[in-house]
From TrEMBL:
Domain of life: Bacteria
NCBIfam families given in the database record: sigma70-ECF (TIGR02937)
Name by which UniProt lists this protein: RNA polymerase sigma factor
Domain RNA polymerase sigma factor 70 region 4 type: 99-150
Domain annotation RNA polymerase sigma-70 region: ranges: 10-75
GO terms, molecular function: DNA binding; sigma factor activity
One GO biological process term: DNA-templated transcription initiation
Family the entry assigns: Belongs to the sigma-70 factor family. ECF subfamily.
Length: 161
């Protein structure tokens, strides 16, 4: 990978990678750190990354960094601080997106990540399997279970309105 190819990769993928990290962590500074660390690792391993696989490599690294960050947070915080994030407060109803995000936060980490990759970022099942080291069948099962859990929690569209 040349410097020009790396710069093009940064320009085209940094926003998507940031959105993915931000949706997962809900902290702008941590999301920026994840993006920066992902691109740093891409540059350090540029010789090992196959041509055309930069996007998959970046999202795999970001996914693993997010998992590490979540584990770190859970290890060093109490259950109360995880339930009440400082940016949420007691804001009443602020829209259907906020309700869906609350239910997404209740999903297991792997299911939430796969839903974000599939429905928010538009990745294929194969790409998600490569990123998460799961089989395509496992990816489909996790997404199905996550969607069923969301459907059960949310109910009908009238519950959102």
């Amino acid at each position: 990978m040349t410097v020009a190819e790396y710069e093009k990769c940064v320009q085209t993928l940094s926003d998507n990678l940031y959105r993915f990290a931000l949706k997962s962590l809900r902290d702008e500074d941590q999301a920026k750190d994840i993006v920066q660390e992902s691109f740093l690792r891409l540059w350090e391993n540029r010789e090992a990354v196959l041509d055309g696989k930069e996007k998959s490599y970046l999202f795999t690294i970001a996914y693993r960094l997010i998992i590490d960050q979540v584990r770190h947070i859970r290890r060093y915080t109490t259950d109360d601080t995880l339930q009440h994030r400082p940016d949420e407060g007691n804001r009443g109803y602020s829209g259907a997106g906020e309700v869906v995000q609350r239910y997404l936060d209740q999903l297991p980490e792997i299911q939430r990540t796969l839903i974000l990759l599939r429905d928010y970022e538009g990745y294929s099942y194969q790409e998600m399997a490569d990123m998460t080291s799961l089989s395509v069948a496992q990816v489909k099962v996790y997404i199905f279970r996550a969607r069923m859990a969301l459907k059960q929690q949310i109910g009908t569209i009238r519950n959102l309105l």
